[in-house]
Amino acid sequence: MTESRVCPSCGAPAPGESNFCEECGAALSADVATPVQPPAPTPEPAGESSPIEELGSGPISSATTNYSSAAPPQSAVHACASCGGVIGPDHYCEQCGVKALSPRDHFREQAAPWVAGVCDKGIRHHRNEDAMAMAASADGGAVGRRAVLVVLDGVSNTDDSQIGSLAGAKAALGVLAAPFPDGLGTPESRLAAVNHVLTSAVKAAQAEVVAAATPDAANPASATFCAAVLEGDVVSYANVGDSRSYWLPDGSAGVQLSVDDSAAQGLMAAGMPRAEAESSPQAHAITKWLGQDSEDHTPMVGQLRITEPGWLLVCSDGLWNYASEPQQLTEQMQAAGTDDPAALALALTDFANGRGGQDNITTVLARIPGPAHVHNAEQTPTTKEQPHG
Amino acid sequence: MAEFAATVYQNEFLPDGGTDVNAIVTITCTGAGTAGQSGSGAAGEIIIVDTSGSMGRETMEAAKDAAQAALAEIIDGTRFAVIAGTDGAELAYPPVQDGPALAVMDETSRQEASHAISRFRASGGTAIGSWLDLAGSVFASLPEVTQRHAILLTDGENGEQPARLDAAIQRATGYFQCDCRGAGTAWKVEELRRVAQALLGTVDIIPSPSEMREEFRAIMQTSMARGVADAQLRVWSPQGAQVLFVRQVAPTVEDLSDRRVEVNALTGGYPTGAWGDESRDYHVAVRLPAKAVGQEQLAARVQLALGDDMAAQGLVKATWSNDSELTAKIDQQVAHYTGQAELASMIQEGLAAKAAGDDATATTKLGRAVQLAAETGNAEATTRLKKVVDVDDEKEGTVRLKRTVDKADEMALDTASTKTTRIKK
User: Do residues A194 and A134 touch, judged by C-beta distance below 8 A?
Assistant: First the structure.
């Protein structure tokens, strides 16, 4: 043993010169080794903590600060999420044998009682390159409600995409956390201002994904981007690549808000049915992404006014691979039978894993109890999609 | 300093509803050093030679020569003794009435012991239980000797009541290790195998007196190269799981399941005795409550423990999947050793049926053995089987019992039945 560094995030030994933990992908700080702390005396579900919180993302309103302060420090050895037993040095529970997922491989976050998400490694991939970030006001029914849902899907087979995606998600959240500017006050200028903020969020994420790889990296980190922001009754959304946002109302047909930058989307635009296009050989080839080798990361942006209760979903393809049509997602949500976004995000994660878990799975949900505004008709934006640079 | 390493071979993928996890864990020891010189206590060797009347002159002389050859292999400084066995047991060397009954090996004691052996004369009966008991008392006379090993040679069937032998075996179990050899064909394989298996030793036939010297030399060399006095295999399984069996599968098949001692509620310990530079394979089978597709968990931690220290650990996993391509595969090592374990029982059961005059059962079992030996590439077993049966179709396992079989060939097939071959990697 030449060195005795351990990962500050998951506690795994980190031999050699690596700057990142081989176990969880967290950055290893250059300073002194952090000893692995003894297990917490009271069982604490591993999923309650999130590396995002460590990075500073969190609730906006003071009323929800409890959600982040309740999380244990990342360096703590968690009790088993399944039985409460002690996690052994081999990262399995010493009581029930369940694998303790590293905080990077599986994390859950709840920004407010109505906004929560799960970011999970899935089954087939050896690490979780997806990332999420979120923020929300305390009351999902309030007129001034606001929620930000961000998902980045790091492209596998590139170096350090798990670093880039997480930093990118956090950077995007930083840009989207403040209320949108009004512009000059006209609906057009307000829309332009919103689009400008969304585009800035993409640029901030892009900067982080680029920074995750060295300039001479052979396979530089790259990622998709998808964000949805609910402000009052209006959802503003943006995406690059094939992570998606959906609006899934309780009482009527759902819609996919985002438009994939993918080969499959190209085929669909040319008239091929969705099921056929999405199962074609190159279906998952994305035509836009963030990263050093990104030629164009202009997001597709749009807005939608909420008029009834429902779910706002932002997810990675690890979920929609198994339920692409809004109707299929709605069926799975109804099958889960819960109004709790945290429980529903877990249920959808389990659903995707149960179907094979071929990719990392990220599910961020906002439960919207219905329109908060009943007036202000002149402010209503219609559904729009426009490339915006 | 001895180093241990554990490697796991398994298919961790279980189908939906699947419960049984099988794994082969290879444990390899390197840098074991020399017996009694690794700081884990002194080593003691006892050579037990049958001097009953049935030993013919040639066998007796060969046995003396072999015992002397074994003495030559015992490293100076090692504690040792020589026992002559008949209807009772006599401490032939060192010549003491009380106190420590193990001499320190050096040039003088080696010569004295050799001289004592040269005076052996064949007379009387065979009482293996009393020999084991005396060996136990001799070891006990010197508590500082913590690595205890004996060689036992006999040429005949035990003359004691079976219960007497069983009781002696039980007293010796876990206290000293014993390699057993049978000279000629008048001894009982089953009897000596019972001794050797309980005392973590080997059993074999020495058909001809001329082979005895080399056999004894080799046994003692192996024992002297065991620098790790004692190690325990530990198997942890999760709460709610059931360990179906723990079986050593290489170099020989030994079912360890019944030897479990509780380490803690979830961990069982199994004795493995002393270790030299070698590797041994273990087959561990665990039954888990089925989990949902997509779930992953640990099915077993398989460890080698020296005292309370864990020297090596292998992790046996379980992942439920609905991908039949993943779940349908049987790990090559697991399949190989499952076949080899069945081969061992088919040979033993086949020979037992043959001895009992049940030719139909013997033909079926030995036929299956021929088939398994071919399937698992155990050429030595195939060669030995062909001395006992005529093979019509190796693939189908169709055989006929030979009309005349050399007794020694049949016993060699029996004693070697537990020897396994490794898969070619």
Answer: no
Return d(Cα B300, Cα B297) in angstroms, integer: 9
Q: Write the CB contacts of B132 (distance below 8 Å, at least 6 apart in sequence).
A: B152, B168, B169, B171, B172, B178, B195
Within 8 A of A353 by CB-CB distance, chain B residues are 293-295
Backbone Cα Rg of chain A: 20
ipTM of the complex: 0.80
What's the pTM?
0.69
Q: Do B297 and A357 touch (CB under 8 A)?
A: no
Q: Distance between CA atoms of B113 and A63, rounded to whole angstroms?
A: 89
Give CA A124 to chain center in angstroms. Answer: 19
Q: Which of the 8 DSSP states describes residue A383? A: P
Residue by residue, pLDDT tens for chain A (389 residues) are 344 455 555 555 555 544 444 444 444 543 333 333 333 333 333 333 334 333 333 333 333 323 332 333 333 346 777 788 898 888 899 999 988 878 898 999 999 999 999 999 988 787 899 999 999 999 999 999 999 999 999 987 777 889 999 999 999 999 999 999 877 778 888 899 999 999 999 999 999 999 998 888 888 899 999 999 999 999 999 999 999 999 999 999 999 999 999 999 988 988 899 888 888 888 888 999 999 989 899 999 999 999 999 999 999 999 999 999 999 999 999 999 999 999 999 999 999 988 888 899 999 999 999 898 654 444 444 455 555 54
Indicate the residue of A93, A97, A354 with minimum beta-carbon distance to B299.
Answer: A97
Residues of B in contact with A350 (CB under 8 A): 292, 294
Token look-up 């990675």 returns: A316
Which amino acid makes up residue A213? A
For residue B236, give the chain A residue with the closest CA.
A94
**φ, ψ (nearest 5 deg) of residue B315:** -105, 125
Work out the widest C-alpha separation in chain B, in whole angstroms: 72
Contact A100, A80 (CB under 8 A): yes
B278-to-B28, B221, B349 alpha-carbon distances in Å: 6, 14, 30
d(CA A13, CA A22): 9
Please give, one letter per residue, the 3-state secondary structure of B31-66.
CCCCCCCCCCCEEEEEEEEECCCCCCHHHHHHHHHH
Please give the angle made by the CA atoms of A354, A241 and A168, to the nearest 5 degrees: 90
Cis geometry, peptide bond prior to residue A220 (ω within 30 degrees of 0): no
- Which pairs count as long-range contacts for B353-356, CB under 8 Å and 24+ apart, including other chains? B354/B401, B354/B410
Distant-in-sequence contacts of A10-17, Cβ < 8 A, 24+ apart: A10/A74, A10/A91, A10/A102, A10/A103, A10/A104, A11/A36, A11/A37, A11/A75, A11/A77, A12/A91, A12/A102
Q: Is B281 helix (H, G, I), strand (E, B) or coil?
A: strand
- On chain B, the residues whose CB falls within 8 A of the CB of A93 are 238, 298
